[in-house]
Design brief:
Blueprint lengths: L2 H12 L7 H13 L3 H6 L7 H15 L4 H5 L1 E4 L2 E4 L12 H14 L5 E5 L5 H7 L6 E6 L2 H13 L6 E5 L12 E6 L14 H6 L13 H13 E10 L5 H7 L4 E7 L5 E7 L3
Parallel strand pairs: 3-4, 3-6, 4-5, 6-7
Antiparallel strand pairs: 1-2, 7-9, 8-9
Helix pairs in contact: 1-2, 1-4, 2-4, 6-7
């Protein structure tokens, strides 16, 4: 079977399932199997697949048809122009989370600190802290993660991106590994924020394939914020910043948890939905 026919058959198969744009998925999976770029598929549409390539392609198309995310099949996801390895042990990096990185960089730029001390809480794949590391060569960077499997993925990404010497990874629950107080300039986090009461509203791919510990946080989605906010207050220096990604429906409850902090404001995503909350520890 040639590439054109294989793509047509895969597209038709994926079109029968609720798994997103079928042609894009069919092409991405064939690129993965062949180890090529999209242009190659179109320039060599008459090339015949070997029996082994055909079998592998059928297998990954079947995986995608079952609802398994493309990123877990290919093992990769782009984030802020960087290539991250991903597995079912970590949340798939999303474009919305880039707002968190952008806000962190803006705070640091305005602060004028020459060697800021930063910690990313619940690092997962490491996308946030490693995106920061790629731009902050003189910063002291830390990342915590409770899952040993996720921490392994983050460490692999640091090595893959040539940043393994720039970030110190810690297996810990939130900020429990830091016994000293008032030493960080910035705490950033993309915590789990979906409530179990919203489980049925979550996409099937997320609900069935992404790690629940990285998605759900108690009945209403506030559990991690209740714990993280006071822990961040402990490790931040006076005037230090806490930045957290939030869910679309919880800005009000999170704001209540931030009573006593200064300069509380919410940053919207491209759809105008509050996506990042930025607050300063009182000086």
């Amino acid at each position: 079977m040639d590439l054109r026919s294989a793509l047509t058959r895969a597209t038709e198969r994926l079109a029968q399932e609720p798994v997103g744009p079928p042609r894009m998925a069919a092409e991405t999976l064939l690129m993965h199997v062949l180890g090529c770029e999209r242009a190659y598929l179109h320039a060599h549409s008459e090339r015949e697949l070997s029996a082994e390539e055909g079998a592998r392609y059928d297998a990954v198309v079947t995986e995608r048809a079952s609802g398994k995310p493309l990123q877990y099949i290919t093992g990769h996801q782009e984030f802020r122009g960087l290539d991250f390895k991903v597995s079912p042990a970590v949340l798939i990096p999303r474009p919305e989370t880039e707002h968190l990185v952008e806000e962190a960089l803006e705070r640091l730029h305005k602060s004028g600190l020459t060697r800021p001390r930063i910690v990313d809480v619940g690092t997962g794949s490491g996308c946030v802290i490693l995106a920061l590391a790629s731009e902050l060569k003189d910063a002291e960077l830390h990342a915590t993660e409770i899952s040993a499997e996720a921490l392994s993925v983050a460490s692999q990404n640091a090595e893959h991106l040539g940043l393994s010497g720039h970030v110190q990874f810690h297996q810990a629950d939130l900020l429990a590994c830091f016994t000293e107080n008032s030493t960080f300039d910035l705490v950033v986090s993309n915590p789990p924020y979906v409530g179990l009461d919203e489980r049925d509203k979550v996409q099937r791919e997320v609900r069935e394939h992404e790690p629940h510990v990285a998605v759900f946080a108690g009945e209403h989605g506030f559990d991690i914020y209740r714990r993280l906010i006071p822990e961040a207050a402990r490790v931040l220096r006076p005037g230090g910043w806490l930045l957290m990604e939030i869910g679309y429906s919880i800005s009000g409850p999170v704001e209540e948890l931030l009573i006593g902090w200064e300069d509380v404001h919410f940053v919207p995503d491209l759809q105008g939905i509050p996506r990042v909350v930025v607050v300063k520890k009182p000086a």
